[in-house]
């Protein structure tokens, strides 16, 4: 029986040519298959609308047949420029941010820019880590959510801005007097004013005992600001108002639990409650139905976000519709203008819309 050698022979090393190519198809191979020049293929990859339709179709087929992938790293090194925009959002699972990402992607893709996305899970420490990773790729622009960041993340954003990288903070807008002193451009709306709008709507319906159920996520700063605005408007009107933090966990379950807590307050329980988001409010609406609590006769309920489910429940949920898609699309427009040499504005305020349904 042959013994197993102690040092089995290693496979022959790949030649430099083999190692460098990694088996990738070349631009020339695609051009030959499509019957065009390599320059035409390159133009199609950058600006497909500039290539005649029959030629474009032959190139698409050749790309599919060869499996060609452009070497983005080589292109970036050659040009000294990146066509990648980095974006950081709190949650990929939440549709309210998904629509903003879609608007951003739609606006960037038409100009040949690509989107690199990361999610913080509402963690400032995670945002800092992601900024370090994403900025290491030297993106052409940076998009972050909100204007609340820890000092290290703030320093990273400032350094990128100093290098000439456009930076936009989305989903937020400070009070008008503060816009000019902010370091970066904001595209969004003032959440404190939204909270005031929510309180004003309930007050206009004659309610004098109000409550706001806040997000249980510590770093959901925008929800907290809406709560601050809600409480301030209620107190300014001389109404009774209380703040309740939603328990952690599933938002629907948290909304149900929050309503149960409010109902246990007895005769002094609120007659109208606003929630940090529609999911909490929909959970409360389901709990009210289970307890035979009339909505809005026994308690009016309203949310924020205008999710699809808000229109499907009975009664429909009164809510505030934020410009989700428009935030992304307008951010893309500003970034493309900035990359073309136009100065960034201090801020771009967008409008929300109160949607009144049966729950109030």
Q: What can you see in these coordinates?
A:
- By secondary structure, the protein is of the alpha/beta class.
- 44% of the residues lie in helices and 15% in strands.
- The protein has 14 helices and 12 strands.
- The protein has a 6-stranded parallel beta sheet, sandwiched between helices.
- α10 links the parallel β6 and β7 (240-245).
- α2 packs across α3 (38-46), α7 (124-135) packs parallel to α8 and α11 crosses α12 (278-290).
- It is elongated, with a radius of gyration of 27 Å.
- The N and C termini lie far apart (87 Å).
- Residues 1-22 have low confidence and may be disordered.
Summarize the structure.
With 360 residues, this protein is α/β, with parallel strands linked by helices.
Which outline best applies?
elongated
Our count of helices gives 14
Spatial sequence of strands, sheet with the most strands: 2-1-3-4-5-11
Per DSSP E runs of 2 or more residues, the count of β-strands stands at 12
Span from first to last CA? 87 Å
Cα Rg: 27 Å
| Uncertain stretches | 1-22
- How do the SSEs run, as a string of H and E? HHHHHEHEHEHEEHEHEHEHEHEHEE
Helix content: 40-55%
Approximately how much beta-strand content do the residues carry?
Answer: 5-15%
| Largest beta-sheet characterization | 6 strands, parallel
* Secondary-structure class: alpha/beta
Nearest-integer average pLDDT: 88
């Amino acid at each position: 029986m042959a013994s197993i050698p102690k040092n089995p022979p290693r496979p022959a090393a790949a030649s430099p040519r083999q190692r460098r190519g990694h088996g990738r198809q070349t631009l020339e191979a695609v051009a030959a298959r499509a019957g065009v020049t390599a320059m035409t293929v390159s133009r199609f990859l950058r600006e497909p609308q500039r290539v005649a339709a029959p030629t474009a179709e032959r190139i698409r087929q050749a790309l599919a047949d060869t499996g060609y992938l452009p070497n983005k790293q080589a292109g970036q090194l050659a040009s000294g420029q990146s066509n990648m925009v980095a974006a950081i959002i709190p949650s990929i699972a939440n549709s309210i941010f998904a629509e903003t990402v879609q608007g951003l992607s739609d606006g960037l893709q038409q100009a040949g820019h690509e989107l690199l996305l990361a999610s913080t899970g509402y963690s400032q420490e995670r945002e800092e880590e992601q900024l370090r990773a994403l900025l290491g790729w030297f993106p052409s622009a940076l998009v972050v959510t909100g204007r609340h960041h820890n000092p290290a993340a703030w320093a990273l954003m400032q350094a990128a801005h100093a290098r000439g990288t456009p930076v936009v903070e989305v989903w937020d807008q400070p009070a008008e007097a503060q816009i000019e002193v902010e370091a970066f451009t904001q595209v969004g709306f003032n959440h404190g004013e939204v909270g005031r709008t929510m309180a004003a709507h309930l007050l206009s319906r004659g309610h004098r005992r109000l409550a706001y159920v806040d997000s249980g996520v510590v770093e959901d700063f925008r929800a907290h600001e809406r709560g601050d605005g809600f409480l301030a408007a209620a107190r300014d009107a001389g109404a009774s108002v209380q703040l309740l933090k939603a328990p952690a966990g599933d938002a629907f379950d948290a909304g149900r639990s929050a309503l149960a807590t409010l109902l246990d307050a007895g005769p002094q329980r609120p007659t109208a409650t606003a929630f940090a988001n529609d999911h909490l409010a929909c959970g409360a609406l389901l709990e009210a139905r289970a307890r035979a609590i009339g909505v809005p006769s026994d308690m009016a309920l309203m949310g924020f976000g205008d999710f699809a489910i808000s229109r499907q429940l009975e009664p429909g949920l009164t809510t505030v519709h934020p410009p989700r898609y428009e935030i992304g699309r307008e951010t893309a427009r500003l970034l493309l203008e900035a990359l073309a040499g136009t100065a960034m504005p201090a801020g771009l305020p967008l409008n929300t819309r109160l949607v009144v349904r049966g729950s109030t």
